[in-house]
UniProtKB/TrEMBL annotation:
Protein name: Peroxidase
Organism field: Cinnamomum micranthum f. kanehirae
Signal sequence segment: none
InterPro entries linked: Haem_peroxidase, Haem_peroxidase_sf, Peroxidase_pln, Peroxidases_heam-ligand_BS, Secretory_peroxidase
Reactions accelerated catalytically: 2 a phenolic donor + H2O2 = 2 a phenolic radical donor + 2 H2O
Amino acid sequence: MAFPSYVKTIFYSIAMILALVFSLLGPAMGQLIVGFYSSTCPNAEEIVSSVVQEAVQEDPTMAAALLRLHYHDCFVQGCDGSILIDGSDAERQASNHAGVRGFEVIERAKAQIEDVCAGVVSCADIVVLAARDAIALSNGPQYQVPTGRRDGQRSNVSDADTMPDSGDSIQLLKAKFGEKGLSEKDLVLLTGAHTIGTTACFFLERRLYDFQPGGGSDPTINPQLLPELKSQCPQNGDVNVRLGLDRGSDQTFDVQILHNIRDGFGVLESDAKLYTNESTRQIIDSYSGFPSSTFGPFFERDFIDSIVRMGQIGVKTGLNGEIRRVCSAFN
Ligand code: HEM
Ligand SMILES: *[C@@H]1O[C@H](CO)[C@@H](O)[C@H](O)[C@H]1NC(C)=O
Ligand SMILES: *[C@@H]1O[C@H](CO)[C@@H](O)[C@H](O)[C@H]1NC(C)=O
């Protein structure tokens, strides 16, 4: 039994109208979309870009700091700005967040945005956009990132206990990423964020001088790298001295970090461990030599997929959460 064609036309029209209604309501109903603020605060992304650009010009180490801030925000309570809250018991005080920086850059962007469209743009989204801009300023890939996150209303120092640690086993690193909906491939690619930035000697103490089992140094450190690390971070020396995470390329966002990890030049223990496990090693190797060098897979391109996925962890949307007036305090 066939429908007359005018009935089909009516069905078709209803379907089109429903599709339109849902595409307009969708963001309000809870998922993220690229350009969420394009009508409510059209300059939001541009303001973030210009504030980040200025900050990085003034202090080139700020690009890496903003990228790390995004990761630390997303891994605790989701990407909801919980790390931005200031206070004695607030999440920011957690030892697992030690050295996380860039709060004043986020706050500066927020203030400028509030001047033109008050109460519209979340701090959670500003963190995500700032990381995106920081990557581009480091010669990394440029990409569009979905927005529409709202700010969380909880920030508790104990929530950061479950952050990945540079001394974690490979199983534990995989499990901690898995809990956030991220795969082994995401673990490798996102660790590739260590293509820019530095670490304090603090995080190398154990790896250089008390590696278990047996004490001494981690045997997976390339013999050429070991004396370099030891001279930069002498035993019982100043743990605040900083060195590049991506030897020879710590200002440029590129695949070198994965090649360094492959060759035993990874600086952090957790980075090096990715090459000790068969499955993560295969992922690292897939970004080396042919065909990767010519036909892909390309680190920069795949990194975008992973960081966009990381940006979706535990997001609050629609009527959840709030839009803070200032990023360091709840309304
Ligand atoms: C696999 C789990 C991870 C561990 C154990 C880890 C650990 C660390 C450590 C110990 C540092 C040095 C911190 C300091 O001394 O200030 C660091 C720096 C950094 N991390 Fe990670 N990280 C991980 C994943 C990530 C992810 C997923 C990202 C981003 C997508 C990221 C981005 C960065 C950046 C950019 C820096 C340099 C910060 C700066 O120069 O100020 N990390 N990480
Ligand atoms: C933080 O969380 C812990 C453990 O859930 C709880 O005991 C404590 O009261 C919380 N602190 C604040 C200020 O909410
Ligand atoms: C390493 O990877 C393999 C997959 O090849 C997996 O089955 C194994 O459990 C992993 N080992 C560790 C220690 O995580």
